[in-house]
Amino acid sequence: MTKHPAKPARPQVGEVPSRQTEAYVTALDLPRDELSEAMRAYLDTCDEKIGFVPNVLQAYAHDNAKLEAFAALYNGLMLAPSGLSKLEREMIAVVVSSRNRCYYCLTAHGAALRQLSGDPALGELLVMNYRAATLSRRHRAMLDFAVKMTDAPDTIEESDRAALRSAGFDARGIWDVAAVTAFFNMTNRLASATDMRPNAEYHAQAR
Hints:
This protein folds into 2 domains: 37-78, AhpD-like (Single alpha-helices involved in coiled-coils or other helix-helix interfaces), CATH 1.20.5.810; 86-204, AhpD-like. It has helices spanning 37-50, 55-60, 64-78, 86-100, 103-117, 120-128, 137-151, 158-166, 171-193. Helix 4 packs across helix 9 (171-193), helix 5 packs antiparallel against helix 6 (120-128) and helix 7 crosses helix 9. Helix content is 58%, strand content 0%. It is mainly alpha-helical.
């Protein structure tokens, strides 16, 4: 089994890391829980496949049950069969995270978007202003819905769902757009509340 390194310590007030990428996991001092065999194997698989354990998983590892729940929900939404492609799900993740100014998710999912699209410029556009990107009608409708749901969820009405149907989304696709949007609004807020920091490796990926 891979032995994971200890989490970097959070700098004291007034101190900064020698480089901004040499950061701690979160601002909270939460000791790692005694993880189940399944969760230890899950973290080992991440380490083997991508070369590191994402800090969001390191953060959740303070509570085995919460890590299991988070991993199951993330994998179900982002990796399992869906009405959306993996690229479309990452597009939603980045644009929602842009609206919420979530440093962790913009960095991690910006890297995933660059890798899946093969287009670093698209990744930067969606991080900064998706409306400046050249997008298909389907993708513009999808991201418009995700942004409205993020900024003003109480104003979503039938005309918004109708716009998605007109752009080619069926009922499953509309559900999946909403579910991915809702998930990243949750993770953005938790990451911001705990000052979660992205792994340094994300910054250089697919540049």
